[in-house]
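Two entries, shown back to back:
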Amino acid sequence: MQVDNQVSPGKVPYFCSVRYGIAVFLLLCNVIIMSQRVCLSLTMIAMVNSTEPHGLSNTSTKELQDNIKGITLTTQQVIWIKWAPPLELGRLTALSLSGLLLGPCIVLLITGFICDSLGWPMVFYIFGACGCALSVLWFILFYEDPKDHPFISNREKEYITSALTQQVSSSTLIKVPIKAMLKSTPLWVISLCNFAFFWSNTFLSIYIPIYIDYKLHVDVEENGLLSSLPHLFAWIFAVLAGYMADIFQTRNTFSLVTIRKLFTSLGLLLPSLFSLCLLYLSSSYYATIIFLILANSTGSFAMGGIIINVLDIAPRYYGFLRGITNVIGLTGGLIASTVTGIILSEDAESPWLKIFLLMIANNMISLIFYLIFAKAEVQEWAKERQNTYL
């Protein structure tokens, strides 16, 4: 993505700005999205331990939550086409998406207390009410285009629009070159890595409390506290990854494709490494917690890699392709949840070994293909003057 003619931000505000306000608002929305999803992992333990009758279908509920999440992730990323200057894309995207990581931290931290003090049904009422409140605020406060926002300063408006003049003009109604996209190797490897990333992220998000219950045999409150720690560090690493990727790009420390490969490698390789340590080196209570934190949190480095790589290779079709890659990624999450559940129910001897090794193999295969075929320049089929027909 070319940024040579981009206007310098000068004294344009960063954190006290509308674009960062939108990123923080999206962060809160993602926190609620994940809280409504991940709270199931702890409430299921409370339900099983409860003697009261209940008629919840855990499997179908998980699938519904995943589908609602395939929608929100796709929609919110299109926002940055008109709101994120190229040199701030990494940090804005990472900040907003980091809510997907902060959400599990918050919900796991407080769900155990809610279950013990108010009962597990109140968990769903509380997080559901928060979601309704944020939805109302979103309709009131969000504007699709910086030009239409009533609270944005003229300086920030000029900075965003001048930086995105080429991209915004390219987002008009155009033909989508499906055949060229299907033949694009860089797009395929991004999709493959999204599949692996969502696989590992879904597995680690949903099944951490169950693994802790299996391994450490702690009560629900302590389980929630321990389960929240990996997500807290994952949120911190996600924000840092987006910021570091932008800094490397601004200072020309590495080429853009090297930056994407570096952060994708960290996001897929480190969780695999620490998962192996969790399987074979976690002989004590503290070793288990440390490796569990590192295995879950280091995947956030992918925020500076594959998560925004689509915009590098095809800015004109970012909304469409981000939707496609998200669908592929969420498919990996659904499969991970289903396969993990099957293995846990059918294998009584070494289920976690098989589950972790399957995740590791998935990460490694995807990463190898990405390192070989990934690109970070606009592809021929995605250029402004390229005429491609179905």
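entry 2 starts here
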Amino acid sequence: MPRDPRSPLWLLLLLLLLPPPGTWGDGGRARPTEGAEEAGSAGSWSAFQGLREQLRAAGALCRRYWALFSCRVWPEGCRQDEEPPARPPGLEADLRVRLHGQHLARELVLTAARGYLELPQPDKALALSFHGWSGTGKNFVARMLAENLYRDGLRSDCVKVFVATLHFPHHKYVDLYQEQLAGQIRKTQEHCHQTLFILDEAEKLHPGLLEALRPHLEHQAPENPKAKSPRTIFLFLSNVGGNIINEVVLNLLKAGWSREEIGMEHLEPQLQAGIVEATDSGFGHSCLVKENLIDFFIPFLPLEYRHVRLCARDAFLSQELLYTEEALDEIAKMMVYVPKEEQLFSSQGCKSVSQRINYFMP
């Protein structure tokens, strides 16, 4: 069947008539950004920069959808493991609009992912280690990255999620788990140009399993310099270091710093020291940490009352439900806040917020 050269133009026209991807599932309503609530309007130059990024993302998205459309109409010219775009088209917008209270994680994840995906010949896998209390957004960001890299998100055959207590529960079977983990990684890499491995509860992984990951995270010399190197991203999600992050943030806020002024220079030394010194986890003593195979340790800050309100708003919008400011306040007040004296941080972050909106449904 011959290809009609005009087809891309019709597809582009159709895409331009659709609402932006960030509004899908919200009934066509525009979602206010956290920045709009916290910092007010940006200057004209920022607006221009934002428009340029949106146009660039729209172009990448059009090319991506055209590739997917072509594969459905003319499958003989496509590979099953179609390579994702080098720059995830919606990742920046997702991190800016949907992730609340995590300016450090937003910047680091976006910079690390873009830099790695744009490398013509990566000589090692990208390894990111997310640290912070439960409910601060670690799994949320991992899912966001999967959704922007693969059309099927976490359901993609090129994405594998391992939960330490679920997939590797018994230490007496660690030899078997090592073989299974290494085999799953090799099989996925053979099938896909680009792979994403998410290891949740990383602090509970047996040292033998962490050792089994070493060959996949070390620097590799390509066997054939002309061959295109496979791209692999490892995400380690852990609660280790959460208390240290919270303590540093609390002290800085008490000293008069604003949350957005907190930088990696305030957190990185204490976080890495806390990971190494943790007595209830072998992660900090593993070869991955000692041999600097983790590229970035990314802190997730404790969430405050205002961030919980934004999570509640998003939960209403995701279900296309109307909400009131009073309802958002009521949900935020249901959460437990610590420390006892300051009542500053939500002890569960935004976890369970989506379930609490059921109290306000008619």
